């Protein structure tokens, strides 16, 4: 019988953020594939788990995928972990997941910490719809294109950034964001956890020399929201309702949103909606 591939989330700072299920899986698998074996060893020692470790990182992903797939085919169960958080999310793992699926090997996610999601839920920015861009590309042309996309994006944008590149990235963002709200989530789950809030200028003034790990969150472009509002208002009331319903809003929220889009009272929408539904 083939083994199973577990994608195991580990803490992003606070070691208490490991789930009971993650511990159980790490105790029970035959092999742990780790982005940095020395780094993961610290966590495993803390959990008193001793297992054969295989390094699996960006630069050996291809060779190690073949090795790990052959082990899985031999019936070995493997847990994939990254240095922090959820593997695959701006971390290695995509290759082995794809190959496992091709080889009809079961892939089981073990949920846990993910920096982007935790930054988003405490940011105060809308989480109804959001765009995760991971790290901005280094290539100049691609980077410019991505920044342009962020400038036009009407959903909350989430970016990862390395601490030594943060200052430069914030400078670039200042050129495209005007007064949009920005949140910088620093050192999540650690002693110096902090959320900076304001427009990009305020944030740059507040942080000084950045120390620690950061996530950048940006409010959607309100102008683009106006444009999409205009498009929505050309829909019938039912189509407008369906648009928000598909996004998971409740009836009460939808009526409020339609009224706001169309600049009329909630009651008016409610009455129209009742009439049309009859
Ligand atoms: N896979 C990870 C996850 O699930 O979040 C992300 C790995 S990515 C290589 C590392 C980036 O995530 C950092 O540069 C930073 O932007 C963000 N990050 C990770 N841990 C963080 C933390 N404790 N606080 C703030 N940002 C963090």
UniProtKB/TrEMBL annotation:
Xref: PROSITE patterns: RSMI
Catalytic activity: cytidine(1402) in 16S rRNA + S-adenosyl-L-methionine = 2'-O-methylcytidine(1402) in 16S rRNA + S-adenosyl-L-homocysteine + H(+)
Domain Tetrapyrrole methylase: 4-203
Keyword Transferase: yes
GO cellular component: cytoplasm
EC number(s) reported in the record: 2.1.1.198
Enzyme class, UniProt record, top EC level: transferase
A Pfam entry, by short name: TP_methylase
Molecular function GO labels: rRNA (cytosine-2'-O-)-methyltransferase activity
Highest taxon in the source lineage: Bacteria
Keywords of this entry: Cytoplasm, Methyltransferase, rRNA processing, S-adenosyl-L-methionine, Transferase
InterPro entries assigned: 4pyrrol_Mease, 4pyrrol_Methylase_sf, 4pyrrole_Mease_sub1, 4pyrrole_Mease_sub2, rRNA_ssu_MeTfrase_I, SAM_MeTrfase_RsmI_CS
Subcellular location per the Swiss-Prot or TrEMBL entry: Cytoplasm
Principal localisation: cytoplasm
PANTHER family: RIBOSOMAL RNA SMALL SUBUNIT METHYLTRANSFERASE I
HAMAP family, alphabetized: 16SrRNA_methyltr_I (MF_01877)
Entry's family note: Belongs to the methyltransferase superfamily. RsmI family.
Function: Catalyzes the 2'-O-methylation of the ribose of cytidine 1402 (C1402) in 16S rRNA.
Record-given protein name: Ribosomal RNA small subunit methyltransferase I
Biological source species: Candidatus Merdicola faecigallinarum
């Amino acid at each position: 019988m083939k083994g199973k591939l577990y994608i195991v989330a580990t803490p992003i700072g606070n070691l208490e953020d490991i789930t009971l299920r993650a511990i159980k899986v790490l105790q029970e698998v035959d092999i742990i594939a780790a982005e940095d074996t020395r780094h993961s060893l610290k966590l495993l020692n803390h959990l008193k788990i001793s297992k054969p470790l295989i390094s699996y990182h960006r630069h050996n992903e291809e060779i190690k995928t073949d090795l790990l797939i052959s082990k899985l085919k031999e019936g070995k169960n493997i847990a994939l972990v990254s240095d922090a958080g959820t593997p695959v999310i701006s971390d290695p793992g995509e290759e082995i997941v794809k190959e496992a699926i091709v080889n009809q090997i079961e892939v089981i996610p073990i949920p846990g910490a993910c920096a982007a999601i935790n930054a988003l839920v405490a940011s105060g920015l809308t989480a109804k719809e959001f765009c995760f861009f991971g790290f901005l590309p280094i290539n100049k042309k691609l980077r410019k294109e991505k920044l342009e996309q962020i400038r036009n994006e009407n959903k909350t944008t989430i970016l990862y950034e390395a601490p030594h590149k943060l200052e430069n990235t914030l400078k670039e963002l200042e050129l495209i964001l005007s007064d949009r709200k920005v949140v910088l989530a620093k050192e999540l789950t650690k002693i110096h956890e902090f959320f900076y809030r304001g427009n990009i200028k305020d944030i740059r003034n507040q942080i000084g020399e950045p120390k620690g790990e950061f996530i950048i969150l940006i409010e959607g472009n309100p102008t683009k929201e106006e444009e999409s509002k205009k498009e929505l208002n050309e829909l019938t009331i039912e189509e407008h309702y369906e648009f928000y319903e598909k996004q998971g809003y409740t009836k009460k929220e939808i009526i409020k949103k339609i009224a706001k889009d169309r600049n009329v009272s909630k009651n008016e929408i409610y009455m129209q909606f009742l009439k049309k539904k009859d």
